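task queued by scheduler; priority normal; single chain, no ligands, no partner chains; default sampling; output format set to structure tokens
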Amino acid sequence: MENSYFVEFPTMEVEDLHINNFGYSVTKPCHKYGPAVRSFYLIHYILDGQGEFYVNGNCYQLTKGQGFLIEPDYQTVYMSDATAPWTYVWVGFSGKKAKEMLNTFGLCQDFPIFTCSEDQHPEKYVMDMLHHNNASSDDQYRQMAMLYLFFSCLAKTNKDKAHCAPKENVYIAHAIRYIQNHYSEPLQIEDIARYIGLNRSYLSTLFKEHTGQSPLKYLQTFRLTKAAHLLSMTQLSIASIAFSCGYQTPESFCKAFRQLTGLSPSKYRIQEQSKSDDNRKKSNPFSESDISIPAPL
């Protein structure tokens, strides 16, 4: 559950850029939203606490000062931490220029995470929108101005990504998709480099510049994220999960999993399935406790 305050508007795809909604939420521990598919772009920025964001088989551990992009027509899940649940603001928007604008400051489905420096405060622009949410034309112009100021923070934060050559972005996107399609195989970084036509050293340098981690670290995290999902959602044996996630032996899988989570796979399964049982008893996972304001007419 979460305590939310938000404003929502009807979608108008004919506009170059249109605000769909915006809001502020203080979530409860383990509050989960999704699986869900949006019809517009949505950016969350975390003010406090931490949580997890799942998209395309990836799990991103996020905390204060970070944010994430949700693109239309992609299934996503995000959940607040059990001990330090997050507080965030969000802005939903659409229009013919939305994707192009996001690309100019380096945000897309393959790179949906951003981190703001301490001197950047994008949340103040969302809070301004919430304090000026009347149906008057001057408030609507003000809200659009605040959206552009919100974007200006992201542009400053991601300026290095925005200046990357498009060809380099394509290389990284191909590498990520190759990992996602072949993670269950005995995959080597040389295989990825060969597939996209780069040498291993250059691929590793390029990959780290764009994602903040090496290709090997990304592959390991992706495999373990898949494994964690299978542990919590299925009754497959530990050995079956290990092999299906690209590990040659159950022992190597258990060692890697413990290093990431601090728990053995079996203990993680017990913990997560017990948590799921408790959540089903306590609440409907598809509902949210929101304070809703009708859209201006």
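post-processing summary
- The chain has eleven helices and eleven strands.
- Residues 137-157 form the longest helix (21 residues).
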